[in-house]
Structures are given as C-alpha cells and as structure tokens.
Design a protein that fits this description.
- The complex is a heterodimer.
- Chain A is built from 11 helices and 4 strands.
- In chain A, the strands form 2 sheets. A two-stranded antiparallel sheet of chain A has the order 1-4.
- In chain A, strand 2 and strand 3 form a beta hairpin.
- By secondary structure, chain B is mostly helical.
- Chain B folds into 2 domains: about 60 residues, no CATH class; about 325 residues, ABC transporter involved in vitamin B12 uptake, BtuC.
- Chain B starts with a helix and ends in a 32-residue tail after the last helix.
- The chains are: A mainly alpha, B mainly alpha.
- Chains A and B meet through helix 2, helix 3, helix 4, strand 1 and helix 7 of A and helix 3, strand 1, strand 2, helix 9 and helix 16 of B.
- Chain B: It holds the Pfam family BPD_transp_2.
Chain lengths: ~300, ~475
C-alpha cells in the first residue's frame, strides 16, 4: 500500500511534466494539423536555459531560492518562446499550404539541428545539478520501513502544472486570443475572412507551447538533476504519445494522457522492470488507439467528402 | 432555395453581380495581412528590421553562445564567451540589413503565396535519360573507380555500397509513403528485423547469406503484417506515432533481451556472402583461386556492391511492376482519396497491408545485407534517426518518384560523408575546430532548407500509373498525396 502510494505520487509528478509538453503538441496539432517534431527539443532547450540562468544567478551571488526559481521560470519561458517563434517562422510558415509531409520533414530537420546545436555549443556531456529543493512532507511512516514522502519539489511541480493548466484553459476559453485559436482550429480560411490574423495566431500558439515546454524543462532539471542534449527526443515522443492517447487537439486530453503515460511508466518501473517501461507505455498507446481510435477525449473524426 | 436567390439577384441593381464576383475573387484564399506601408525610407526600414533580427538572435543565442556550462571540480561552472555571441549578433544584423536593403528592395516578399502549378511540359524524357545514365554509371562504377581513383578505391566503393543501401531503403519506404500514402516513422524496425533475423539464423543454424536473405525478408514482411493489422485502421498521424512507437519497442527489446539478441553488445561473426559457394578470402576454394586471379580485398567489396545494386534494382523493378497491377493502382488511388476507394469497393485494409508488408520486406532485405556487410550488428544502428533519414530521402526526393529517391539518397548520404572530410576548415577556424561535430548540425539545417526551397521534393513532377484518356504530368501542387486518411 505504501509502496503503491509512493509510486502514485511519483507517477503524477512525471505525468505533470509530460502533460505540460503534450499541451504544446496538442495545440499545434489542433491548429495546423502537423506533428511538431521539434517540440521535444524545445523542451530540452528550456531546461538548458534554466540551467544557465541558475548558474549565472549563482555567479552573481543571488541564492535566495524563490527569487532564483522565479527568474529561472521567467527567463526560460521568454527565451524558449523566442525559439518556438523562430522555428515556426523559419521552418513551418514557408511551408504552410504545402502538403502535409513537408512541415514534418522540416520539423525532423529542425529537431536534428537543435540537438546538435546544443551539443556543439554546450558540450555532449551530461550536466548534473545538485538537488536544490530538498525535504518534503512525510505522509505515512509504516513500521516496516517504507516511507511515503511527498517532496517539496513534487509539490511545486504538481502545483505549477495545475496553475499553468488552469491559466491556459482560461486563455483558450475566455480571451480573444483563445477564441481566435479555436476559430483557426475549426476553419483557417473562414477565420481569416472574419478578420483573424491567422499567421499571428499560429505564431502565438507556438510561443505558448514553447513557454509551457520551458517550464516542463526547468522542472525536469530540478526534479532529476541531470540533463543532456538528448533528453528532448524521448520526452518528446512520450509527450506526443500522451497527446495522442488523450485525443489530439484536446487540452484536457493532453493532461490526462500525460498523467496516464506517467503513471503507466512509473508503475511498470516499480512493479515489473525498468528496461521495458517505454515498451509498456507504447503498447498501451497502441491498444488504446485500436479500441478508441480518436484517443480518450478526442472527438471522433467526421469524414467529409 | 435556388429560386429565392435567383429572384433576389434579379432585383439587384446593375453591376452588383460583377461587384460580388470581384469581391469573391479578392477573397479567394487567405487574405494577405500585409502590414500597413510605412513612411520610412528604405534605409530606415532596413535598419529597423536588422535591429529586430539582431535582437532576436541575441535572445536566442544568449544562453548558448555567451554562456557555456562546463563540468568543473565542484559541480558545474559557467564560462563566458562574449566574442562568439557578439559576432553572431553582428552577422545577423549585417546579413539582415543587406538582405532587406538590396534583395527585398521593393515591396515585402510574399511568403507562401500562390505558386504557379508546375508546368505540364513533358519532363519525362530528361528524367528517363538521366535514369539510364545513372544506371550505366552504377553498373560500371567499380571499374570506373579502379581505373580513375585507384588510391581511394576501397573507401569510395564502401561509400557507394552505403548509398545504395539507402537508395534501396528509400525505394522500399517509397512503396509505403510515396505510393500508398501511409506515413511510417518506424521503417527502421523492419530494417532491424531483417538484420537480426539474418544474423540469428546465420549464427545459430549455420545458414548462408543466400538462404537467409529471403527468410529475413519474409520475417520482416510478417512483422509488417502483424504490426499493420491492428493499426492500419487508424488515421494518418496515429499511424505515424504507432509506427514510431513500434520502432522504439523493437529497439528496446533488442537492447534488453540479452540472451537472444546479445543486448547492447550486438551480434558478432555474421558470415560473409559467397558466390555459389566461393568465398572471398585467401587460399584454397576461394573466388580468386577458382578464377585464377590474384587475391585482393577489393574483390569482396565489388561483390557486395553488385549484390546491393541487384537488390536495389529488384526493389525498383518490383515497385514499377506493382504499380501496373491492380494492387499498385489501388495504392495510388488510396493515397489520393481513401473514401473514394472504399466507395468503389476496394478493401482498404488489405491494400494498406500489402503496401506495408511489401515495404517491410524490402526493408528486411536491406537489413540482412547490412548485417552481412558489417559482420556485426547492434541496436545502436537502428535508432529513430535512421528512420528519419530514410523518410527524409523519400520526401526530399519527391514522393512516389523512383529517380528522385535515388538522387536524394546520393545527395544526403554522400553529403553527410563529405561533411566528415571538411578538415580544411580547420585552417580557417583554428585547430580546435572539429568538423565531424557539425556534420549532423549541417545535415539538419540542409533538410530544412531543401524542404523550404523545394517542398515537393527534387523531382516534383510525376505521372500517375493509370490515366484516363490522355497522359498528363501532374503538378505536385495539385496532388493531395501523403494524406494517409
């Protein structure tokens, strides 16, 4: 029981990170119908920027943790959003209106480029960061020695995910930007006829997705304490899996899918084997898609002739 | 409904119809959101844009060029490199300024916009001639190399074998992506299945290359069916992610099932192919001994070269013939419009499965060739990047175009190999400059640039196999290929 609870907490934490990345995939897919393969790399860039900010602040002598974290989040979000904007502008916008595989190839190209760019500029070696936020709340202390602990970093990750999710849901459902995004999602041509600046809306979607990925990257850095230039690929694939599992194009679906993938992975790791945790996550994806072809919360596709 | 509109139009004032037509014309497509023309002079505008670009580049690269995190004694250390950062920003500023001031001098460039449909002029004779020339070169390459470049003979032959492997993989994937329009991101899985089944059969049962080759192909095709059966009902992008996931699953299983696959250490001692039992080695009963030639290690390379050339041409031949069969026609029809196919009574699942299995089979052939060429395989050779490269070859070559795929494979794989040898750059950037580091960086960038430059691939015009009445070349822009649903 205690073990189960601990795994549950770990799974939710991991799922939160996946969910935040998955939102970027699902928003972009919803609005322009392409798989943004470079999104995992955006996440990786976010975590590298967060690390650099942390070290720069440490060099300046600022060590008060709340301020450090706040600055890390803000700077990482801004810089990563700039990357997201640039990638869209350089690699995807010229191909808008082209056939579907074209932006996918540029996305893969961008992903290769970004991985190697970071490898060249920051070195290929793993960057360890000693844990900054220690301690936690002991929820249960059973006599047989198994302790269920909810660490502060886990609380921060889960709370931040909830806050960001709420904020972005509100942006999508209440603001005029969100309305424009939903309009573009349904019919880009019609939206543009009604005065929505489609290019700007799409750019902002990339910016929002990248900002969320930056937060995910920073939390990954703080939680695991180890990053390298390759983390983007596997996290990206998992997050995309999460987005598909939840029903691509659906924001709550992305979060739900993220949680599901996080939990599956953690429980598999905890009860069966570490090696095959990815296999488990992907197999569940395949099974779900066979029986629920549009994901958990996705709308079934209406085929138009 | 039609009555009311016609009566309403009858009541309209003169010229109203023309007006509405003009309006409709104006609204066709997405309206351009051109920014209001500014009053600034060209110089000021160019300076402004340059400043914006420089600012953006500064923001993008500040944590990558200016700051560099290094592992130091007590954890991580931050080193500053302001020179690099300032140079990058300055290049961005000057470059953008020159571009805006001189190249985009007049109006703002329209991005995307409406491109002219590719001309319907018959470009096929050129393609055919080029194909024949390439084929002739391919057939005589080992001799050409031996005559003209004897010093680098081995290396260039090896490179040619590598390129041909990718040509074959590209042609195999072309069946799935280019003809049937199914987006497969895990093609390397079948390559891996082929390689491992050959290696395992050969090492465990002591079978030779020629016996194992068809078996490896069949195994790969079987896997294609096993994987394809449940997922081919899915829409295009779901198919993409499931195939990607499958590729990863295969790799993870190969990596962890140590008893069977050797795990990360891979499999060693895979036998070399023989020519009707003649081995390419020194001594009694070998190829050189039988024909009374002097032994030379190049002979084996030439032999391997012709094997992969034959395999690749087999792939091409089968594809071309399949396109003339009902099933091939069905693939192409499926790519264009799945709903129409279903309405016409085509069993889409079966048609997709045959495409998937055929593509997988050729992937398996290529895999077993890879295994016998290397003599050693490990899961490292079958990562997602391989799938991405093969897909890039297919798409950059022009979907469905056999010649385009071959050209793209030569350009991409040859290009990667060329980048390995850019040692002369060390003279410019100093001794610490390692060109191999920048290999994949440039590769990724080239993928983006080629795609933006030619979104339809290098050979973007192709003719459908089945034509009604007269034969026409279809401009790539008209075809909604690769929809996959």
């Amino acid at each position: 029981m205690e073990y189960f609870l601990q795994q549950l907490i770990n799974g939710v934490t991991l799922g939160s990170i996946y969910g935040l990345i998955a939102i970027g995939y699902t928003m972009v897919y919803g609005i322009i119908g392409m798989i943004n393969f470079a999104h995992g790399e955006i996440f990786m860039i976010g975590s590298f920027i967060a690390l650099a900010v942390f070290l720069a602040l440490a060099a300046l002598g600022i060590t008060f943790l709340p301020i450090v974290l706040l600055l890390m989040v803000i700077v990482a979000m801004i810089c990563t959003a700039a990357w997201g904007w640039t990638i869209e502008r350089v690699a995807y916008r010229p191909l808008r209106g082209s056939f579907r595989l074209a932006p996918l190839i540029t996305a893969i190209g961008m992903s290769i480029f970004l991985q190697n760019f970071v490898q060249v500029t920051q070195g290929a070696r793993v960057k360890p960061l000693p844990p900054q936020i220690q301690g936690g709340i002991t929820l249960m202390d059973s006599p047989n020695g198994i302790v269920v602990q909810l660490s502060y970093i886990q609380i921060i990750i889960i709370a931040m995910t909830i806050v960001l999710m709420t904020a972005f849901s509100l942006i999508i459902s209440k603001t005029s930007l969100g309305r424009q995004q939903r309009a573009c999602e349904q019919d880009r041509k019609m939206a543009s006829l009604l005065g929505v600046n489609v290019d700007r809306t799409i750019s902002l979607t990339f910016v929002m997705g990248a900002a969320l990925a930056a937060v995910a990257g920073m939390m990954f850095l703080l939680y695991y304490g180890v990053i390298d230039f390759y983390i983007g690929f596997i996290a990206g694939v998992k997050a995309f899996t999460a987005a598909v599992l939840g029903g691509i194009g659906s924001l709550p679906g992305a979060m739900l899918g993220g949680l599901a993938i996080g939990l599956i992975e953690t429980f598999w790791q905890g009860y069966f084997s570490v090696e095959y945790k990815d296999v488990a996550a992907f197999s569940i994806l395949a099974i779900v898609l066979i029986f629920l072809p549009s994901g958990l919360l996705g709308r079934p596709e209406v085929e138009k002739v | 409904m039609t009555d009311t509109t016609s009566s309403a139009s009858a009541n309209r004032p003169e010229g109203a119809e023309r007006l509405s037509e003009e309006r409709r014309d104006a609204m066709r497509g997405e309206p351009p959101f051109a920014e209001a023309p500014s009053d600034d002079s060209r110089l000021v505008r160019a300076l402004k844009e340059a400043a914006i670009t420089a600012g953006l580049v500064a923001l993008l690269t500040v944590f990558f060029f200016l700051f560099r995190t290094d592992i130091a004694v007590g954890g991580l250390a931050l080193t500053l490199d302001p020179a690099l950062w300032i140079i990058a920003v300055a290049i961005a500023f000057v470059g953008r300024f020159l571009l805006t001031y001189f190249v985009f001098a007049g109006e703002k460039p329209t991005i995307g916009g409406w491109k002219k449909v590719a001309s319907t002029a018959a470009r096929w004779p050129i393609g055919k001639a080029l194909g024949i020339v390439l084929l002739a070169i391919a057939f005589t390459l080992p001799f050409l190399l031996a005559i003209f470049l004897p010093s680098q003979n081995r290396y260039l032959l090896d490179l040619a074998i590598l390129i041909l492997t990718y040509v074959m993989l590209g042609w195999g994937l072309n069946i799935v992506v280019g003809l049937a329009g199914l987006l497969d991101l895990g093609y390397v899985a079948f390559y891996a299945v082929g390689a491992y089944s050959f290696a395992l059969l050969a090492t465990n049962f002591d079978l030779g290359f020629w016996v194992c080759l068809p078996m490896a192909g069949l195994f790969a095709a079987l896997w294609g069916i096993v994987l394809g059966f449940p997922v081919l009902r899915l829409r295009g992008d779901y198919l993409a992610i499931v195939t990607l996931a499958f590729g990863e699953i295969i790799r993870v299983v190969l990596l962890n099932w140590s008893d069977f696959t050797g795990g990360p250490n891979g499999l060693l001692g895979i036998p070399k192919p023989t020519l009707f039992g003649l081995e390419f080695s020194r001594g009694e009963g070998s190829f050189s001994d039988f024909f009374g030639l002097d032994y030379s290690s190049t002979q084996r390379f030439v032999f391997l070269y012709y094997i992969i050339l034959a395999l690749a041409l087999l792939t091409n031949f089968v594809t071309m013939r399949m396109r003339k069969l009902p099933v091939g026609r069905a693939w192409e029809a499926l790519r264009e419009d799945e709903i129409a196919c279903r309405s016409l009574g085509i069993n889409t699942v079966n048609v997709k499965l045959t495409a998937f299995a055929t593509g997988a089979m050729f992937g398996g052939f290529a895999g077993s060739f890879f295994a016998t060429r290397q003599g050693f395989i490990s899961p490292e050779s079958f990562t997602f990047i391989e799938s991405a490269i093969i897909l890039a070859i297919v798409v950059l070559g022009g979907l469905g175009s056999q010649l385009g795929v071959a050209i793209a494979a030569v350009v991409m794989i040859g290009g990667i190999e060329l980048l390995r040898n850019l040692t002369f750059l060390q003279a410019i950037f100093g001794a610490g400059f390692d060109p191999t580091q920048y290999r994949m960086l440039i590769f990724g960038l080239a993928m983006v640039l080629i795609m933006v430059w030619k979104p339809r691939g290098l050979v973007s015009t192709r003719s459908p196999s089945a034509v009604y009445k007269e034969k026409k070349a279809i401009g790539g822009d008209l075809v909604a290929q690769g929809e996959g649903h």
